[in-house]
TrEMBL record:
PANTHER family: PENTATRICOPEPTIDE REPEAT-CONTAINING PROTEIN 3, MITOCHONDRIAL. InterPro entries: PPR_rpt, TPR-like_helical_dom_sf. Gene3D superfamilies: Tetratricopeptide repeat domain (1.25.40.10). NCBIfam families: PPR (TIGR00756). Keywords: Repeat. This is Pentatricopeptide repeat-containing protein At5g28460-like. Belongs to the PPR family. P subfamily. The gene is LOC115753512. It comes from the Eukaryota. PPR repeats lie at residues 338-368, 378-413, 414-448, 449-483, 484-518, 519-553, 554-588, 589-623, 624-658, 660-694, 695-729. Residues 29-51 are annotated as: Disordered. It holds the Pfam family PPR_2.
Length: 764
């Protein structure tokens, strides 16, 4: 059952009155494998100064019905030892047109001596194919020629067959090309034909057929050297299959890959890089690792680039042992790490906050010049280390690294370097040091960017210097640095936190006037601030603008609105929000349920609150400390301490949610209010045993209860415990104790209690 339908059914019960990349530069361009080029048909060979060719062409210049068969027969066949098959190729090409050449083929077939006919016909037909391929409508003509050769039993040369495969492939007549290839005896197929045919099959998506042909080549490896196998086409095919084209099982693909390696057929650097990248992008890091090791173990050439890809993925998974293993393998086979390799290693260590390890690698490499290896860190490496040091709060070391970087020739700090340090200082509330670096940027000629501005504005806003942030932004505008939506969002949030909603709304309107548009985060920030302040009409208005701008409310935003309406007793509006939330496909979460549960508990509708808790569990949501706290608070408001304690015990025994200070305080205050001070003190003991830290509210509740029962001795013990926990008394503490201890003549105990605390506020 949805929350909306549940609330609808519970509506009568509701009270009617009441949210390693900077180091992958060398991988920025994908090198896609290119298909093998098809051979262009041979040029029109002009006949040489061969007497037989010249005389034959002279005789054939006459109209076809005027040819002198006897003279041709004498010239071409009477001197058969002198006439060779290449003469027929040259004569056919010299005729210039396939139609005339076909008449010559008829003559050759009817007049050739039986023993010479196959060779003469083959060469004649080969040249006819060349002529036909240059004429309009050549696709159909070649198909008819091929059919005719089969009908008339004309043997075709391997060159003629290769031409037919090439031309049919170029015309997209794949089935015809396959038919021609199948007619060629396996022992006659050469490397060029295989490469041509396989390339065509891959281009037209016939992956299964292509791999079968490649298997055939591997079976005939005794006829082919490793260098004869078209490795570029083959590894391109594997890559396409990894990309999902043409299917293929993992074991099948890996098996063919390994078979090639065993024959000494290795992928080139680009093919290997692309295969490893594809596997890593598919999340198959283990498979990529295994294939790379196979290439290394087989003695294939491996460069740093594919190793770098795997190092990046291992770094993301924090698998430092495997990173180390790969680095050792690289050293064993003399793969020289490049700046990217070292950057990936340092970046991975910094990202996992192992900054000391990263610095150790950095120092070792900077001083390592053996084996002809020398390396100078670049700005990217320095930036990575500086950012890593800033993120763990080691700002002095980061600043020292900046000085070291500045002294290094050819490696000047850039805007990213300064932004990392400025961000570090801002997060540590050292805004003045951040501005010193900002001034240093200008002195060094490094221009700040919008990230610099946003970092400083956000830092000032978070630490209460909102007006300074506004003035700084005005100054940046004068210098030509335009703010973006993130700049405004930081300011809007700060003004909402300071309850200056007029300024927050003004800045929100200024976003569009400044040339940029509000994003969903800007809308969410303003809506959240307005809901927290109870300005629900304004929040609803901004939510309407958000939807009109093409954005959707998320669960947090809906929850803010629902919670705000519940706090303002606007149940119908909150109810409509839940309805809209579910209809827009946003599933209510624990926070949504807690909003309704808290409202009903506070307004005394505990039956409804308990039903909501059960519904929450039925929906697969885990009640939070807020859920239990709301119920406990509701029963305490009703002075039903017994039921409140029952839920508290259930929370301890059944759920995995430990009670927090707020829940303990609610119960202790309720017990004291009902004169169950001993139980309240026991609960405080339980609180401390479980490591939940009491606060001033806890002690104040106990002091009230002890004063009501006049347990002075116990009060002194509680005062000592308050000292032990370094918990400062507030004006409520002093009001309770001053009135009570003065009345019983224990002012000295009170003076001793406040010694060491700032008491000016108490006196006032």
């Amino acid at each position: 059952m949805s929350l909306f339908r549940s609330l609808h059914s519970l509506k009568p019960l509701l009270n009617p009155a009441v949210d390693l990349s900077p180091f992958l530069r060398c991988f920025s361009t994908d090198h896609e494998p290119e298909p093998a080029a098809e051979p262009e048909p041979g040029p029109s060979h002009q006949p040489h100064n061969d007497p037989i060719v010249t005389q034959a062409l002279d005789l054939l210049q006459a109209p076809e019905n005027s040819w002198d068969p006897a003279e041709l027969n004498r010239l071409l066949f009477s001197n058969s030892p002198t006439t060779v098959p290449t003469h027929f190729s040259k004569i056919t090409l010299g005729l210039g047109a396939s139609g005339k050449a076909l008449k010559f083929l008829d003559f050759v077939q009817s007049h050739s001596p039986q023993k010479d006919a196959p060779a003469f016909l083959s060469h004649t037909f080969q040249s006819i194919v060349k002529l036909a391929s240059r004429e309009p409508g050549w696709e159909k003509a070649l198909l008819e020629l091929y059919k005719m050769s089969k009908q008339r039993d004309i043997p075709l040369t391997i060159n003629a067959l290769t031409l037919l495969v090439s031309f049919f492939g170029r015309a997209g007549m794949v089935d015809e090309a396959v038919s021609v290839f199948d007619d060629i005896d396996r022992n006659a197929r050469d490397r060029h034909l295989y490469e041509l045919f396989v390339g065509m099959l891959f281009r037209y998506g016939r992956f299964e057929s292509a791999l079968k042909v490649l298997d055939e080549m591997l079976e005939l490896h005794s006829r082919f050297a490793a260098s004869d196998i078209p490795r570029k086409i083959f590894f391109s095919a594997l890559l396409r299959r990894l990309q999902g084209d043409g299917g293929g099982h993992e074991d099948e693909i890996d098996g063919i890959f390994v078979k090639l390696l065993e024959l000494g057929v290795f992928p080139d650097s680009i093919a290997l890089l692309n295969i490893i990248k594809k596997l890593c992008r598919n999340g198959e890091i283990g498979r990529a690792w295994d294939l790379l090791l196979r290439v290394i173990q087989s003695g294939g050439p491996v460069e740093a680039a594919p190793c770098n890809v795997i190092l990046v993925e291992l770094g993301k998974r924090l698998e430092f042992n495997r990173m180390r293993e790969l680095m050792i393998k690289m050293k064993e086979i003399s793969i020289q790490p490049d700046v990217v390799t070292l950057g990936i290693l340092i970046n991975s260590l910094c990202k996992s906050r192992r900054v000391d390890d990263a610095l150790e690698v950095f120092e070792r490499i900077c001083t390592m010049h053996d084996d002809g290896f020398s390396w100078e860190p670049d700005a990217v490496i320095y930036n990575c280390l500086i950012d890593g040091l800033c993120k763990v709060g080691r700002l002095d070391e980061a600043a020292e690294l900046l000085r070291k970087m500045t002294l290094q020739d050819g490696c000047m700090p850039n805007v990213i370097t300064y932004n990392c340090l400025i961000d570090g200082y801002c997060k540590c509330c050292e805004i003045d040091k951040a501005f010193q670096l900002f001034d240093q940027m200008s002195e060094e000629g490094v221009q700040p960017n919008v990230v610099t501005v946003n970092t400083l504005v956000d830092g000032m806003c978070k630490f209460g210097r909102v007006n300074s942030a506004v003035e700084f932004l005005k100054e940046m505008k004068v210098r030509g640095l335009s703010p973006n939506v993130r700049t405004y969002t930081s300011l809007i949030k700060a003004f909402c936190n300071a309850n200056n909603f007029e300024k927050a709304m003004e800045l929100f309107q200024e976003i569009s006037r400044s040339g940029c548009s509000p994003d969903s985060i800007a809308y969410y920030t303003l809506i959240s601030g307005l809901c927290t302040a109870g300005r629900m009409d304004d929040a609803s208005s901004v939510a309407t603008e958000l939807k009109a701008a093409g954005f959707s409310l998320d669960a947090v935003c809906y929850n803010n609105l629902i919670g705000g309406f519940c706090r303002k007793n606007k149940l119908e509006e909150a109810y409509e929000m839940v309805k809209e939330m579910e209809s827009s496909g946003v599933k209510p979460d624990a926070v949504t349920y807690n909003c309704w549960l808290s409202y009903n508990a506070k307004t005394g509708n505990l039956t409804t609150a308990n039903k909501l808790m059960r519904l929450m569990i039925e929906q697969g949501l885990v009640p939070t400390v807020v859920s239990y706290g709301a119920l406990i608070h509701g029963y305490c408001l009703e002075n039903n301490v017994e039921e409140a304690m029952k839920i508290f015990r259930e929370m301890n025994s059944v759920s995995k949610i430990p009670p927090n200070t707020v829940i303990y305080n609610i119960l202790i205050e309720c017990l004291c209010r009902n004169d169950e001070v001993d139980s309240a003190c026991s609960l405080m003991d339980d609180m401390m045993e479980k490591g939940v830290r009491p606060n001033t509210t806890t002690f104040n509740a106990l002091f009230r209860g002890l004063r009501q029962t006049n347990c002075l001795k116990k009060a002194f013990e509680v005062m000592d415990r308050m000292h032990e926990h370094a918990c400062k008394p507030d004006y409520v503490t002093m009001e309770i104790l001053m009135e009570w201890l003065s009345a019983v003549g224990e002012v000295g105990k009170l003076k001793s209690f406040v010694q060491g605390y700032e008491v000016a506020a108490f006196t006032a």
